[in-house]
Amino acid sequence: MKLAIKFLAAAVLSLCIGVAVATPLLATEIIPFHRIPQGPTADFGVDITYADFKVVGQPDEYGSQQMDYKVVLNVTNLADIEAKLGMLDFDAAQNITLLVGAMEGGSASSSGGGSGGGSMGTRVEGLWLDDKWLNVTWIPGAHPDGLREVMTSHRGDTDVIRYVSNLPTEIPNRLNNASETGYLLEGVPIRLYHFFNSTENKLTLYDVIYANGTWVNVTGRIRIENPVSSVLSYGTVLQATTRFWPQTSISGTLPSNHSTSQNFIVLSGNGEFNNIWAPHQSRLIQIAGTVKVNGDEAIEAFTSGNINLYTAAYSYVYDYDKLVNGTFYDTSKMSTNLIAVALTPTADGNYIYNHLLNDNQTLQIDQYGVEATIVPRS
Q: Which of 39, 293, 327, 369 is the most buried (most CB within 10 A)?
């Protein structure tokens, strides 16, 4: 779940400098890693102040029930410059782990209480492998299709441990006809495989890189410069995302492949919701909706002690299509918060976390269904 500004800026930059190469490459030619210059960024604080969950209705034929939820976040621009809020993520799960490494904003989750695994992938400019700098690899096929095939046709998500254990642990030599059957590329494709053993409550991580035509298991042997954050959640009860898009976008709820997930688009700017935060400004932002869950598993998660609540705010300073002195700059920033809380049950069947309201207060929501204001209870 990465803020669209970075991907869109990268796409525009790629078109401008001609990433796709139609002519044959020379044997010694290395396709460079295209860097977006770093611009100013704004750190945001995002605090979970209120959460309310309620399983309602009867189970359907698949055992699913509706769950209403309402979450209120205190979002603060900690910087001395004005910035825009681009996206908010919220997760509630029995187990959530924040990772620091190559993947920024990446998210993987599994609902239910069983064991399971998967992977997340990206491409980094370079990395340290066994204390040696690696930033060039050979990719089979033609550019850019060869790299696209590498990044999208990975295996092993259904049987992580067996797949990773069968991978080589050393980078093979390049083929004798490497220049005829592929090309050299600056940057290293990397995947993080993960497996959660619910019986032992144990998370195991595996680092895998693509080098000279094959995936290689390098677990425990790499170091990433300028590491970034991603999140893994197991026993997921809810994942909700709100994107703040320009007025030309389509508002509403985006479809999701997972019943426990919900995605919203809020139109921003030009008379719509104001997603600009002044320096050091704080505002209360609500994410609310209804998802389908396994009611028994959700209630078990709510009553089994602490539940993990995670949120991330993605901010940016320059619009993705803004040129500054003829250059696109990356001004996006991701800020996260993870807490473990005990929810309080009510007589009405709600499960609540409340560090926001007293008994004489309630929330008033704006016309966009986004910003909350504390008002006296009538």
A: 293
